[in-house]
Design a protein that fits this description.
Low-confidence stretches: none
Shape: globular
CATH class of one domain: Alpha Beta
Radius of gyration: 21 Å
Keywords: Monooxygenase, Oxidoreductase
Strand content: 15-25%
Mean pLDDT: 93
GO molecular function: FAD binding; monooxygenase activity
Pfam families: FAD_binding_3
Largest sheet: 7 strands, mixed
Protein name: FAD-dependent monooxygenase
CATH topology of one domain: FAD/NAD(P)-binding domain
Strand order of the largest sheet: 5-4-13-14-15-12-16
Number of strands: 18
Structural class: alpha/beta
CATH architecture of one domain: 3-Layer(bba) Sandwich
CATH superfamily of one domain: FAD/NAD(P)-binding domain
Number of helices: 14
Length: 397
């Protein structure tokens, strides 16, 4: 087994391509977008995922491109600051944790693979036969020994091999939207946050970025819309945030003009198994933990490393896919549990809950047990981030 197709040039896809190449396989990556995706939002890399980054020789580069966020300030509806906290505490980061823009990380991963991995951009798979023959929207059919779905929560690969998305997606009762907007608040490595019952707005600017990111999250039942219709999605966002004060009206107006727009439900993917025949899933396609978990990127990095390593060590006939799942399942479950728990603190249902959270933020610096309080906030995330022991898979290159 040598020829492997990876669907999706995501974090999971590019990382899988890197490790497969290091183990002597010949991976091909197909990506619907016309080029590597460089936009997105800031993501955290923790625990075992940091070990993967270090083994790829990227740790120094990741830290060099770190967001360098300093603090997060909460504002009331009239624009008055009401509470400020350290950015690392706000993001649940301690110790060696790294924060980087998702596009920057994907660009670093792509640069590691672009010279010795075949990339098929502006294309997507349309069918997978039992003998491994894959049909594409644009390219001619080709046969592969294995197809790896690394194409996200709305995975085409998963739909073709396992069935409709609705069978596996669990909505957590919220939606999220992120856009690049002008930095009209003059933010410098800081976050500005406003919370209303059931709705939260956050705008931030990272190091060496003249623009800002506007992030909205709100409680919501399942919505019916086309995932490829940003105009309708922007309408749904505007409807959801109607009547919220602070800078929200100005941010919504900026979002309407933005061509860098992300909108989706806050959801998880739960599956009884991640492989079927010649198809296996990695990252969000198989076990999305939701943006609320803060661990999606780490799951993608670790999953890609383990999958490639098990394929190299055991091969398909030796049970590699079963071993991959056995190694990853407890890690995935620990990190998926974070999503619903974290979401409660990100979108609060009442003004009383908001006032209590702000009170605790103001009180925290003055508490004698401050470090223990921080550990309570970040401890669950780090226990989940370290809930796997990585094997040392020997590479051939």
């Amino acid at each position: 087994m040598t020829n492997i197709l990876i669907s999706g040039a995501s974090i999971a896809g590019t990382t899988t391509a890197y490790w497969l190449r290091r183990h002597g396989f010949t991976p091909t990556v197909v990506e619907r977008a016309p080029a590597i995706r460089t936009g997105g939002y800031k993501v955290d890399v923790r625990g075992a995922a940091l070990d993967v980054i270090e083994r790829m020789g990227l740790l120094e580069a990741v830290r060099a491109r770190g967001t360098d966020m300093r603090h997060a300030t909460h504002y009331d509806a009239a624009g008055h600051p009401v509470a400020t906290m350290d950015a690392d505490l706000f993001g649940g980061r301690t110790g060696d944790d790294a924060e980087i823009m998702r596009g920057d990380l994907n660009e670093l991963l792509y640069d590691l693979t672009r010279d010795d991995v075949e990339y098929l951009f502006d294309d997507t798979i349309t069918g997978i036969a039992e003998d491994g023959t894959v049909t594409f929207e644009r390219s001619a059919p080709r046969r592969f020994d294995l197809v790896i779905g690394a194409d996200g929560v709305h995975s085409v690969t998963r739909r073709l091999a396992f069935g409709p998305e609705e069978r596996f997606r669990r909505d957590l009762g919220a939606h999220i939207s992120i856009s690049t907007v002008p930095n009209h608040l003059g933010l410098d490595r800081e976050e500005a946050v406003h919370a209303a019952p059931g709705r939260t707005a956050n705008v931030y600017s990272t190091r060496q970025d003249p623009t800002a990111k506007a992030l909205f999250m709100w409680s919501s039942p399942a919505l019916s819309y086309d995932h490829r219709d940003p105009a309708r999605q922007k309408e749904l966002l505007t409807e959801a945030m109607a009547g919220v004060g602070w800078e929200v009206p100005a941010l919504l107006e900026a979002v309407r003009r933005s061509d860098d727009f992300y909108f989706d439900s806050v959801s998880q993917i739960h599956m009884d198994r991640w492989s079927r025949g010649r198809v296996v899933l990695v990252g969000d396609a198989g076990y999305c933990a939701s943006p609320a978990s803060g661990q999606g990127t780490s799951l993608a990095l670790v999953g890609a490393y383990v999958l490639a390593g098990e394929l190299a060590r055991h091969g398909l006939e030796g049970g590699a896919l079963e071993r991959y799942e056995s190694a990853m399942r407890p890690f995935v479950e620990a990190n998926q549990k974070l999503g619903p728990a974290n979401l409660k603190g990100m979108v609060m249902g009442s003004r009383l809950a908001i006032r209590f959270q702000l009170f605790m933020i103001r009180l925290l610096p003055h508490l004698p047990g401050r470090d223990r309080m921080i550990e309570r906030v970040a401890g669950a995330i780090h226990r989940a981030a370290d809930a796997i022991t990585l094997e040392d898979y020997k590479t051939v290159e």
